[in-house]
């Protein structure tokens, strides 16, 4: 099986801690300081140094635990066990990059895991149906709720304490939106320095340890940014179903950077034999099909020891989820965008416009008609609760909109990509840096909507790499998007009037990842699982679920009258998670 495991149970009455872990990459490390034992997952960074002894020394020097936690950078989860004081502290980083799920067992006992399913293995308790519908609607969960009422996701930048006084949680850091916004030039300079520092730190010690590093390289911007920032050479790996435009651009970028390049054909049925593994990774808290790399162990496990991934940069600096739309010329979409105005009903705006919501199928079709009004009110209440938190941190307007998806960032639907690599190799995301996060908070939406500061930073780091076309537009990647719009318009008319053969943009078969409907179409395993959804015992436990309508949705997809693949994958995720927990 392609899985990793991490389970901890603490009894504050006795001070005993039970820990079980398997297949973690990197392996957990233990550091002792007096009566305390620090258990380190991932790679915490202290004062620009990434090694465990530096973390130990910082802990010794900093008597206040919150100050110690605040001094750490990078992606990590730290457990601090004090057997004499009968306490266990669990510290998350600012992104929650190692998602931790826990339950207060009562009587001074706590248990938790990196997977909700593993945490709930002894007693799942009651289901939270509102959380499950929120997942159906948004394809993610907000705040700290889970599918189970008694279990919580530990908030990012927090310290969870299990001790003689019970269970408590404290936030040691909060994003500050009251800072002065950066200009484009200043922001670009800061992005360059912070990204170079982060990539260097994530490769620190590599030569001495003879570690092999590789980068998942696409033809777009974010992985190219990591290649541009790297001082030492990185191998590049690109994966698609077959060699296509994405591969061609990535190969050209790698060659320009002097990076050894490898093309790996994507398995045509990557989830056959891995559905349960994909669901187990997060306990169904993210869609199973985002575990893109579960089937790659035979293909890439021997190629490198650690893989870099560009996840996060487009969220921080490219305005990926800002409310925006392409500018239109003569009724046709261009490559540059404009911000959409926000109304006084920000809750409604978010629910109707956020890009990652389930939009290919109406999620209200899942819900019995007489339950829809109340469930909408509770969904709106969940959104309003997070907006309220953002306002308390100084966020307004577009900052507040972005707070909705950067709070507890590891709950974002794409994080299983990292987790799936970690089932067979280390995976690091250099974008998960305190400095880069802070720059993003100080960057106005107007600078993000068309990646103005980000593009300037990338051009500063490597004009040569940015002169190569972007596979998403087939135009020089470093050009401002409005200029790319003019070039594409010219190419369009040239193709129409003079029979030119300019590539205008990638078709579906020219991208890195196949569409969900194509993944479903070639997998009998997935088709059989989908066909059984209307008669699922697990889904039938949900009192709001309209199984007759689920049957209709499945039938519509099978007949080809509507593409419901994304919705079916969301349903399958919940169905398999509940089947394992309840």
In a few lines, what is going on in this structure?
With about 575 residues, this protein is an alpha+beta fold. It has a domain at about 5-100 and about 155-170.
Overall mean confidence score, pLDDT: 95
Largest sheet: 6 strands, antiparallel
Q: Count the strands?
A: 22
Percent range for helical residues?
25-40%
Q: What are the segments in which pLDDT stays under 50 over at least 5 consecutive residues?
A: none
Strand order of the largest sheet: 3-4-7-8-12-13
* First-residue to last-residue Cα separation: 22 Å
Estimated structural class? alpha+beta
Content of β-strand: 15-25%
Query: How many individual helices?
Result: 25
Bulk shape? globular
Q: Any idea what the radius of gyration is?
A: 24 Å
Task: Write the SSE topology.
Elements: E1 5-11, E2 16-22, E3 29-33, E4 36-42, E5 45-46, H1 52-61, H2 65-70, E6 72-73, E7 76-82, E8 87-92, E9 101-106, E10 109-113, H3 116-119, H4 129-138, E11 151-153, E12 158-163, E13 166-171, H5 184-203, H6 206-209, E14 213-216, H7 222-229, E15 235-240, H8 245-257, E16 261-265, H9 275-282, H10 297-300, E17 306-308, H11 313-317, E18 324-329, E19 332-339, H12 346-353, H13 372-392, H14 397-406, H15 416-421, E20 426-428, H16 434-441, H17 445-448, H18 452-461, H19 463-467, E21 469-470, E22 475-476, H20 481-498, H21 516-521, H22 524-531, H23 537-540, H24 547-559, H25 565-581
Parallel strand pairs: 14-15, 14-17, 15-16, 17-20
Antiparallel strand pairs: 1-2, 1-10, 3-4, 4-7, 5-6, 7-8, 8-12, 9-10, 9-11, 12-13, 18-19, 21-22
Helix pairs in contact: 5-7, 5-18, 9-25, 12-13, 13-14
């Amino acid at each position: 099986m392609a899985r990793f495991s991490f389970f901890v149970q603490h009894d504050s009455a006795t001070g005993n801690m039970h820990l079980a872990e398997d297949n973690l990459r990197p392996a957990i490390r233990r550091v002792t300081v007096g009566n305390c034992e620090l258990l380190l997952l991932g790679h915490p960074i202290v004062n620009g140094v990434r090694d465990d002894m530096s973390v130990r020394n910082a802990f010794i020097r900093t008597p206040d635990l919150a100050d110690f936690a605040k001094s750490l950078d990078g992606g990590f989860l730290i457990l601090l066990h004090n057997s004499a004081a009968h306490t266990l502290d669990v510290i998350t980083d600012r992104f929650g990059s190692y998602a931790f799920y826990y339950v207060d067992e009562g009587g001074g006992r706590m248990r938790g895991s990196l997977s909700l399913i593993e945490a709930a293995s002894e007693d799942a308790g009651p289901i939270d149906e509102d959380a499950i519908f929120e997942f159906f609607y948004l394809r993610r969960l907000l705040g700290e709720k889970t599918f189970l009422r008694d279990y919580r996701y530990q908030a990012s930048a927090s310290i969870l304490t299990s001790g003689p006084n019970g269970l408590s949680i404290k936030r040691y850091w909060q994003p500050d939106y009251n800072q002065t916004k950066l200009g484009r030039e200043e922001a670009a300079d800061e992005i360059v320095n912070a990204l170079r520092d982060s990539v260097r730190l994530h490769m620190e010690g590599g030569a001495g340890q003879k570690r092999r590093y590789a980068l998942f390289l696409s033809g777009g911007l974010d992985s190219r940014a990591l290649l541009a920032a790297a001082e030492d050479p990185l191998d590049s790996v690109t994966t698609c179903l077959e060699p296509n435009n994405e591969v061609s651009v990535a190969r050209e970028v790698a060659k320009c950077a002097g990076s050894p390049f490898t093309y790996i054909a994507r398995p045509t049925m990557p989830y056959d034999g891995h559905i349960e593994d994909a669901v187990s990774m997060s306990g169904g808290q993210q869609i199973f099909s985002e575990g893109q790399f579960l089937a790659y162990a035979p293909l890439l496990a021997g190629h490198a020891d650690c893989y870099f991934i560009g996840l996060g940069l487009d969220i921080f600096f490219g305005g990926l989820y800002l409310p925006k739309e392409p500018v239109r010329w003569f009724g046709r979409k261009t490559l540059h965008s404009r911000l959409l105005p926000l109304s006084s009903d920000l809750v409604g705006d978010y629910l109707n416009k956020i890009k990652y919501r389930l939009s290919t199928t109406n999620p209200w079709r899942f819900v019995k008609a007489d339950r829809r009004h109340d469930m909408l009110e509770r969904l709106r209440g969940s959104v309003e609760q997070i907006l309220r938190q953002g306002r308390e941190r100084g966020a307004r307007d577009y900052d507040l909109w972005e707070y909705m998806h950067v709070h507890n960032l590891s709950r974002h639907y794409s994080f299983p990509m990292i987790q799936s690599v970690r089932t067979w190799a280390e995976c690091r995301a250099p974008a998960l840096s305190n400095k880069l996060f802070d720059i993003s908070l100080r960057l106005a939406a107007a600078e993000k909507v068309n990646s103005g500061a980000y593009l300037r930073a990338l051009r500063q780091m490597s004009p040569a790499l940015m002169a190569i076309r972007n596979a998403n537009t087939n135009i020089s990647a470093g050009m401002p998007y409005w200029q790319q719009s003019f070039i594409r318009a010219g190419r369009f008319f040239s193709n129409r009037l003079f029979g030119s053969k300019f590539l205008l943009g990638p078709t579906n078969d020219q991208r890195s990842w196949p569409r969900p409907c194509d993944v479903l179409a070639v997998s009998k395993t997935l088709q059989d699982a989908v066909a059984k959804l209307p008669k699922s015992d697990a889904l039938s436990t949900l009192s709001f679920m309209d199984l007759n309508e689920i049957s209709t949705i499945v039938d519509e997809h099978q007949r080809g009258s509507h593409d419901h693949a994304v919705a079916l994958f969301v349903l399958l995720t919940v169905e398999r998670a509940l089947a394992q927990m309840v």
